[in-house]
Amino acid sequence: MGDLMTERLVLHPMSVAEAEQIASGRPDAGARWEPGFPAEGDVSVAERFLEHCAATGDPQPFGPYVIRRRSDHRAIGGMGFHRPPDEHGSVTIGYGLVPSARSKGYASEALRALLSLARAEGVVSVKGDADHDNTASQHVMTAAGMRPVGEDDRVRYFAVSWTADPT
Q1: Pairing status of strand 125-131 against strand 90-97
Q2: Cut 0.85: pTM above it
């Protein structure tokens, strides 16, 4: 699985070696991490990815991606699928950026690339959620084409769906 490229970003599929570095918080000499990376969520994702790889193998393209700026190749966050598509062709996404990379449109740009990949891979529905007070994350999903589909006392749920390609 190769990198996903956008105008300003590279979404790099996380490897086992990278996940081990992120989980330990210790990059190798060549790694370029923005201050604040990895955040607690990135560490948790890397640990779950390592467990998944050990149990069933690498889930790519339905695994985690490290988001890097093209301009300086620094890791500024992560985005990815929680697990491969379910029996209905649905996946759930998650993401996070370091504080210095927020409010620049990076998350929406990265999410549009991930949604495009999901659709190209035959996924029919992508889901996500955000806490009620996390309006920035809600904006990310709507800017990328996802729509609110419900809520509970804690979160708002978002989704985008496509019909199967008839060709």
Answers
A1: parallel
A2: yes
